[in-house]
């Protein structure tokens, strides 16, 4: 079943599910006459049928054979009695599966309507809840009027969108339900209790009606922590309904609504209902008594509007509530104006902890931690008692001190806040205290305090506190390189933020989600989320967008967009210097230093030095890492290694596993010790892999494959990693092209399908060899795969008819020629590429990349992986081996005994790989792929019994019996040609892979 009201894309979903042999029909066309003969039926618009016809059609569908599948669409869920007529369970897909995410809305806006504004998608999604038809109405509006109020414009009477909602959605609702929805539309939640009190429906019927509205998509869930799971009308639909609310809804119904909301402990919609009913005093009383609860539930914008409509008041509590609500909606200037008379009065009569903390919070939201501290200093620590206001004051003070890098003071203040909170039972205060303590703790203590903060926030039903904790948990997961957890926590923070939160905190959640997505390789969404974060912060004041700019700088730097990265970093540096916010300034300086190291090393050093000198303990790893990369790019490998070591230590001290992994990469790049480099990269790989950082994992796999000591499996993984990085748009790693295998091996020798030598990525011209014997010497050494060949053997091969006394000198001259060709700049010791000792002469395959040697190693590595049960990884390597076998080794030396054994060794490795790959395809349900490989194998070796058997059984299993018999006949002919026993025709009845004889060789 696909259930959703009009405009959700049910028909599109039906078409996307249809198999090639399936049929899609309208339900009305199937009531009479025989049902089509097809393995799958897609039946649209079941709801247009009468109840009797609907039952008749379902009974006929139930009588279809068991192997026939069908999918139905309807605007409303079917009754359980109707569903019971169908055989087996029914899977229902609904609006939650069909809605567009905010990111999908952004893609639609950009691709179909040319709207690039990162904030537009959020506005459209908030107005439509991702309802596809409404999204298209909204997108067309935003493309024409970028600054339009989406909800108001789409719901305006007479517009196409309002007419469509009225005709296609509201007209299908029961009158009693529609009337109750009109009441709720201007108030907020639509609950079963509200429907029951406003209609003749009983309790069960009201609950069922709310369920139907949710499952059809008219209502959307708004789950709050620890509280009632609320449903609200999709905003555009609510506005259409509310257009005539004041005239259509009497005061008695609004009073009923107010009391229903109070019974469900929903104070803000209750206050709003009292206000609309004309009882302003009841509305004020509710805000005075439960204003903090309203703000915690995310109703800041509504509280501002409500209090403005209620008019001026002498109540200090209401004034403070309005000012704090203005801060939460991001109107920090308005909040400061609202606090101004309260501050003036406090300067005259004395400050209290609540006002001090609230004013500080406004400055902190503006990115002014120093001004926040001045506000907090309006009272002394002794004046802040252990009640809620005192706890919140200390929690705010600890956060501000930590932002300014005064960690020791922050720890003391946060510890007192926690102590006071534990002595009481105020869950909201406890959530703030533990959040502040988590800010100044490390490791498991930080995690523990965040968990306690989340528990307290959930118990209090405090969506804002829960959202802040989720933001902090995502930060912790990022630092611990647990990117799956970071994505989960950040997405939950964004979800809670959408319920209503301070824009600054919501922007941080978007930033953290962007960073987590960056690490898992989702660059498109990462960029978009970071752009949303920056845009939102800019609305709060320029001082707050530094974090998002640093994130954008990181995305652009990884993708090689140097100028965009530089612009982002430069702006972040300026903002960080102005605000003194070290968590912005230090990473921005370090990132900019890394970016500038190649083109302006002196400026890069100054930037890195500023980061080092200004870094607090938590930011020190970034500074050390930046300085290390600057030294490395400048060529100061020894100093780079020192700074890499410092980065490792400082990252370990603050449990920043992500920076630790990067520091280990720097260690590998800076050291001359291959064993140390391999260990460092291995540890970095483990960190990235455990955390799900797919891009960084691919980067380190590439770096490992570039190491001189890399084996065949390492190089195969590196090639695969290079392809993954290229697909993501990453073309360089640590300054090298991802496809530059010669970066690790300056000399490459290809013997498969032709002989070619490359130096520094360029082929060696034929004239550079000066003699045919020089090329032959390299070929002979290549055929030995790094094993030494005695001088006497080489002389005999190269000059078989000459006097050995003369050829020894010739060999020395030839050796010098070869070394000059392979190292024309004399950059390495003489034996770097071609070694010579008393045992003979050999290629040093630690420094020379030989394609045949790598292929044999990779074939063996894949076999080992299969033995270990890692079949998918083995399949990837075997496919790569097959692709790299461009032809026989040294085919231009056919008939030369010294080349024959080498050629056969490589060919045998390739054939073994093909057999294993065919066996894997057959065993994993890919018979067509297996058959192609098996035919190729028989072309290469028509007498391979195992391959014949596997081809026949694969064809039989695929139901291709005629082909199987022809393949069996060819098998019998091949065996007869070599006087081997004929095959057993029992194999023609096999439906599996058979016995152990099919094990790959």
UniProtKB/TrEMBL annotation:
Gene3D superfamilies: Tetratricopeptide repeat domain (1.25.40.10), Winged helix-like DNA-binding domain superfamily/Winged helix DNA-binding domain (1.10.10.10). The lineage of its organism: Bacteria, Bacillati, Actinomycetota, Actinomycetes, Kineosporiales. InterPro entries: AfsR-DnrI-RedD_regulator, BTAD, Sig_transdc_resp-reg_C-effctor, TPR-like_helical_dom_sf, TPR_rpt, WH-like_DNA-bd_sf. SUPFAM superfamilies: C-terminal effector domain of the bipartite response regulators, TPR-like. This is Tetratricopeptide repeat protein. Signal peptide: none annotated. It comes from Angustibacter luteus. Residues 850-988 form the Bacterial transcriptional activator domain. Residues 980-1001 are annotated as: Disordered. Pfam families: BTAD, TPR_12. It comes from the Bacteria.
